[in-house]
Amino acid sequence: MRAASGPGQLLEQLSRIVLDKEGQIRLVLTALIAGGHVLLEDLPGLGKTTLALALARSLELPFARVQMTADILPGDILGSNFYDPAQRSFVFRPGPIFHSLLLVDEINRASPRAQSALMEAMAEGQVSLEGACYPLPSPFFVIATQNPEEFDGVFPLPENQLDRFLLSLSLGYPSRAAEERLLLGEALPAQGVEPVAHSDALCEWQESARRVFLSPEIRDLLLDLAEQSRRHAALRFGLSPRGLLALQAALRAWAFLAGRDFVVPDDLPAVAPAVLGHRLRWRDPGDAQQQLGQLLQKCWGFGA
After folding, report:
1. To 10 degrees, what angle do helices 267-276 and 241-257 make?
2. What domains can be seen in the chain, in order of their start residue?
3. For labelling alongside 261, which of 16, 180, 232, 253 has CA 20 to 30 A away?
């Protein structure tokens, strides 16, 4: 039986499956409710696939997983036309991208050509192939994972590809207590979870999040950040207008997930690092997270 519940119940259920990661799960749900996509950079085995599968089952979303490799082709993701003798014509066979939730595993193992196959889908919700345009399902959500850059056989994602992701974050290792619970079998299995909502409810959440109030004072803080980032000597380039809109959308979704219909200043440091970390490029990469925290401290008086 399908339960009628809200995003709070979804967050609670996912937190019982991927233990000790409520903050990261909250950010993933923020991207989902904001209508964006998520990039997870982590070592293998930390729960990324489990989280994606549990999210799909919890919302009854059609789910597909693509394992990226160096020899994968765009057609393996998008689909292709094939000749059907019965119809005496070419017929389009959809690829795995035509699912509401797509897990793109190890995206940076694929060649730039295969990576670019995702760009139109993530930006416009459609696929163009051989002169025809095919709309993707709504909602449509991509969770992509990437290996750390020091791994062998990776192709770094270019800036325009990274910009298609609303948020970028890392799950990281669980705590000792969470791993003990995992060993004791206390984590819910992702395969057996019951739905807590469905795609229609998700669309309603997304619409409600777009109506969350953003005060002129909060908006001024966002504009201050954009202006400061473009003048910052340590940055190669500043925050783009699309990045600024992404931050606004994420703030509204974060507030909605917290049960509010307005954004508060405390939402800014909670959301900004995941929105900005993969968009800003520092002249000296160094500790990018620390430099970002200093930028936020300078602009807003509080850091990440």
Report:
1. 130
2. 7-202 (3.40.50.300), 213-300 (1.10.8.80)
3. 16
